[in-house]
Design a protein that fits this description.
This protein is α/β, with parallel strands linked by helices and 297 residues long. It is built from ten helices and eight strands. It has a single domain, classed as P-loop containing nucleotide triphosphate hydrolases (Rossmann fold, 3-Layer(aba) Sandwich), CATH 3.40.50.300. The structure holds adenosine-5'-triphosphate (ATP) and magnesium ion. Magnesium ion (MG) binds next to α1.
């Protein structure tokens, strides 16, 4: 790779609705306000960065503030990235022995290799972080099930591909094809390995959770999965923490939360733990996001 600097990627993961996007947007604004060119990327199928930044959705980096840009990539776009990188080459080989139209072939590939789109999202973030354009990349991931599927795909794809050479070894590439099918598969394997290595060394995961029993149970599973893939978790963010209050209702809520906060602090004392208060207002736009950022940085 060239001598371009690699932008650190700060990812936010956790179950649905716990505040991933809120923390990601606040983090992006924080880094941008300190003079670093920052890109916030969402890979959620139902992204909400545009809502929180109060702008239109963007499928190419769109500017929100001075040094702050954001981008929402969906499965369709990731599919296009795959097509651009591999689709035509593989099709050329494929169509030399099976009569199949291009769009049927794309559908077929997506069905035999689930996770293709997700892998290309990871690949896109890796390329973006290596491109020398950004100082920091903030990654707002999809709710947990989808994120784990995403993180597993490079390994999964590698597994699929281990079988492929035996199947394809005897098949010659189409006349005029630039590469043999084995070359293409090897290129693909290298890509999977690079994406997995990037997830391990280039991405720092922040786990967002709320202080409730159910969330705590699920957290162990989340961290276990990340650990299984040797991914780095740096911080646990406990969100929606009720602060001292003059309302009896909120006081009782706070007492209950404190039990879970103590549990979390004991269980995960190897992680940096931050608490974000429950705000009485909606978090949207610069001012409220800066309030969240102040509690995180
Ligand atoms: N600390 C907070 N105080 C008040 N409201 C909050 C706080 N954190 C998040 N919210 C609100 O809770 C809702 C869910 O937050 P957010 O969208 O960030 O969660 P998410 O984990 O990204 O959800 P999803 O899994 O759907 O992507 C939003 O309406 C957000 O404004
Ligand atoms: Mg979200």
């Amino acid at each position: 790779m060239s001598g371009l600097k690699q932008a650190p990627v700060i990812a936010f993961a956790g179950k649905g609705g716990v505040g991933k996007t809120t923390c990601a947007a606040a983090t992006a604004l924080h880094f941008a306000s300190h003079g670093g060119k920052t890109l916030a990327i969402s890979t959620d199928a139902t992204p909400s960065l545009s809502h929180i930044f109060q702008t239109a959705t963007a499928d190419i980096p769109a500017q929100v503030a001075d040094d702050l840009f954001f981008l929402e990539i969906g499965a369709a776009q990731a599919g296009q990235m795959w097509e651009k990188k591999f689709g035509r080459d593989v099709y050329q080989v494929f169509s030399s022995f099976v009569e199949i139209g291009y769009s049927d072939y794309v559908d077929f590939m997506a069905s035999v290799l689930p996770g293709l789109a997700e892998e290309f999202m990871v690949d896109y973030i890796r390329e973006t972080s290596c491109g020398g354009v950004w100082d920091t990349i903030v990654w707002d991931t999809a709710p947990l099930g989808q994120t784990m599927a995403l993180l597993q795909t490079p390994a999964l794809l590698n597994h699929h591909l281990r079988l492929a050479p035996r199947i394809y070894a005897g098949i010659k590439a189409a006349e005029g094809a630039r590469e043999t099918i084995l070359d293409i598969i090897r290129r693909w394997e290298a890509l999977s390995a690079a994406d997995m290595a990037f997830l391990r060394s280039g991405v720092e995961f922040n786990i967002v959770a709320i202080p409730e029993a159910l969330a705590i149970n699920q957290l162990d599973e989340i961290l276990g999965d990340l650990h299984k893939y040797d991914l780095r978790v740096r911080r646990l963010i406990i969100n929606n923490v009720v602060q001292a209050s003059d309302s009896d209702f909120l006081r009782r809520k706070a007492v209950q939360q404190q039990i879970y906060i103590k549990q979390l602090s004991d269980m995960y004392n190897r992680l940096r733990i931050s608490q974000v208060p429950l705000f009485p207002h909606e978090i949207r736009g610069r001012e409220t996001l800066l309030e969240v950022a102040k509690t995180l940085y």
